[in-house]
Amino acid sequence: MKRVSILGSTGSVGTQALEVCVTHGFPVKGLAAHHNEVLLEEQTRRFRPHLVCIFDESRYQSFKTRVADLPVKVVTGIEGLCEAASMDEADMVLNAVSGMIGLRPTLAAIDAHKELALANKETLVTGGELVMRRAKEQNVPILPVDSEHSAIFQCLNGYRHCKVNRILLTASGGPFFGKTREDLRHVTPKDALNHPNWNMGAKITIDSATMMNKGLELIEAYWLFDVLPEQIEIVIHRESVIHSAVEFTDCAVIAQLGTPDMKLPIQYALTYPERMPCPTKALNLWEVGKLTFFEPDEETFTCLKTAKEAIRRGRLYPTLMNCANELAVQLFLDGKISFLQIAALNERALELDGSGEVTVENILNAEAAARELVLSSI
What we know:
This protein has 16 helices and eleven strands. By secondary structure, the chain is an alpha/beta fold. α4 runs parallel beside α5 (103-111), α6 (122-138) packs across α14 and α10 (212-225) packs parallel to α13 (303-313). The chain is globular, with a radius of gyration of 20 Å.
C-alpha cells in the first residue's frame, strides 16, 4: 500500500489524484498547494496528512491558524515544497504543481529515493538532462502522468527491447483548430480557456490553445523515452480517444485508447505495475463513431516550431523558452498582451544565450533572463 505525498493537491490533477487515493485506500501523508487555503484546509481535515505545505509564504500564518487544532506540520515556500517531496512518511510523490517551481521538489524526491509520478512537464522541459541523469544515478523510476506520456509508457510496456521508429504524440488541437492567424488576433482569455475535450488548469489550457503544450510534451517525451526529436510526430486527433501511439521497427503501431479522463493516467502511475478498477467512463467505440487525424498547422501555431528549435539546440534553450512562455501566458490572462504575442515572446527568448551547462543555478539564471526579456518587450 503506497503512502503518497501530493504536490499541487488543489489543482485539477491533484484533486483527481486524491479521488484515486480514496478509491484504492492509499494513505495521503503529504499535501502541498500554492495559495488555495480553503480547499487545502478541507483536504487536510479529510486526509489528516503528516505534513502540509502552503507555498505562498504570505498565507503561511493564516493557514497555520486554520489548522491549529490538527496534529499536522505546516511548512511554506520552496523549502517546504521540497520537504513535502522528500518526507520519510511517503513512498511516492506525485508532482502536479504548475510551472518550473516543480523542478527543485522533483530533484528532492529523487534524492530521497521516492517513486516519482510526474505531472509537472516543466521539470523535464527546463531540467531534463539534469533530472534524468539524477534519476538514473539514484535508480528512481519516473512514471509519467500526462495522458499522452502515460499512453506512450503503456504502449512501450513489454517492448522495451524493441526498436522504436516513431512516437505518435496526439493533440486535440485546442479551441482554435482550423483558425488562421488573422482569426487569432483578437481572441480573449475566455475564448482560449474554452477547451473542447479536457477540464484543466488555466495555464495548461492556454498552452493547449497556442499548442505550446504539445511543444512542451515533445520535449518531455524526448527525455522520458530516449528518442530523437525527429522521431516524435505530432498528430491532431480531435476526439482525444487515442492518447498517443508508438510505431515499432516492423511498422506495427500500438496505441492506447480511452475516454478523455485524467483519472486513468493518474491511477496508472499510482498503482503501477498493477491495473485496478478506475472510476472513469468506459470507452464505447459505437458512441465515438469515428476517429479523425490532421497535420498540425505550424505556420499558425508557431509555438510548435519554437519548441522544436529549442530542443534541437538543447542545453538551456528549452528553459529560456519555457520561462518566457510561463510569464507570457500569465500576462495574457491578465489582459496585458494579445494571444499572438505569447508565441512571439517565446520565439524571442531563443535569441538569448542558452549554451550554458544545465545546473539548477543556470536554470534559475535563465529564468531571470527570460523574464527580463519578456517584461522589457511589452
